[in-house]
């Protein structure tokens, strides 16, 4: 399956660079040897390797099954940990761990972004003392990954398995791409699961790429080949700074891929539409890089550019479950907001939300707790935030999408937008239930309800919202992009309250 996010132009440029490096395009559909993967990832001739001779004089395990070092991606220094699946299935022993720890220590010292090309069968049970209990074993790798979290980008591509304790390596990263049919992560193999629980399953069902991208949320995107996943890694890094002290690089702006036309956002609050159409009409053309597109689809998050500036988008998706916020969508948005704040990416919230989902099932799942995580992440983010009400924003969904009380730089609204605790119809039924029930004549009852609804609509209309400074500006659809560009430009000089590391990026 091809990636739905990689920029075709960026892929074409990569293809030219890879051809100059001598890479054979006929291999693009196959599982690649580790050094071909590195040739795709790094600028030609830029990789400097460490520990090549590990295990050479002892067990004759080339590089002890893992390649580490530093290369350049578009001129930027990036550290690498890359499994060699041809050596003991990429499994971890003492020197495998030591090599990984050493490059992570360098990344911690020098603030190097890290890329992990994972294709590893877990720890070598023949070398348990080497990888498991000691101070320089797997636990030190995870400790360093957590120490790096929020300080430098950490990008993981699962090109094969990531098994047992090693499955936590991708979990500590900012983004995880998986190759369908090859990439997998699981704490125990189906054979072990059957022995322990009696459950009979398959590797794909339990830990495959599509499962993790659509059900567990542990994967961010699924790709059809190694080269597509590696291309997306190069592209994603262009949206992120080298470390938490910097801002993402600005590039030349380009026009959006489509115009924001009348009717793109329906006036009927119950009519579904795809919020990606709105996103593509506002951001620079072909710049939207969606995160976790297959998981919790009722909310859309991802990076894009506005006149060349990188922004993070959080948008309700009316075409999926009406855009209501569920447990998974709250977690998805919270983690993305945390990532944007860590890497100095301004946030743009696009509201079209009926609120948080209600009912017995979501209450038992902890919707209040998960909703609180979203609100904490949004409220804690220091980066510039701008809210845009596309059509409606109701109840606590308004709060979660950065209501005025959470100090966005501005709250904007399209001319037909509505902000309210609930729909006017629901509000009238709640407030006037006894009065409505007491009217026996159906026509009189309908007229009474219609009059009360009109009152509610007037009370909560945009004129009223603007007069009370809830909304800073009402913007026509065709002018929204220019308005956002101007307001983001005004925020260019923002600084943080402190110079410390902001926070970790917690797993969902």
Describe this structure in words.
This protein has 508 residues and is α/β, with parallel strands linked by helices. The chain contains 20 helices and 16 strands. It has helices at residues 8-20, 34-41, 94-110, 128-131, 138-148, 168-171, 190-197, 203-207, 209-216, 226-237, 275-282, 327-342, 360-365, 367-380, 395-400, 424-431, 433-438, 442-459, 462-467, 480-490, and strands at 48-50, 66-73, 76-83, 114-120, 154-163, 175-179, 184-186, 221-223, 289-291, 299-306, 309-316, 347-353, 385-394, 410-413, 418-420, 473-474. β2 and β3 (76-83) form a beta hairpin. α3 runs parallel beside α5, α12 (327-342) runs parallel beside α14 and α16 crosses α18.
Which key features would you list for this structure?
508 residues, alpha/beta, eight-stranded mixed beta sheet, 16 strands
What is this structure, in a nutshell?
This protein has 508 residues and is α/β, with parallel strands linked by helices.
Measured by DSSP, the beta-strand proportion falls in 15-25%
How would you describe the shape? Answer: elongated
* Rg, alpha carbons: 25 Å
Would you identify the regions where 5 or more consecutive residues have pLDDT less than 50?
1-13
Counting DSSP E segments of at least 2 residues, the number of strands comes to 16
What's the rounded overall pLDDT mean? Answer: 89
Q: Please count the helical segments.
A: 20
| Gap from first CA to last CA | 25 Å
Helical content stands at 25-40%
Structural class: alpha/beta
Largest sheet: 8 strands, mixed
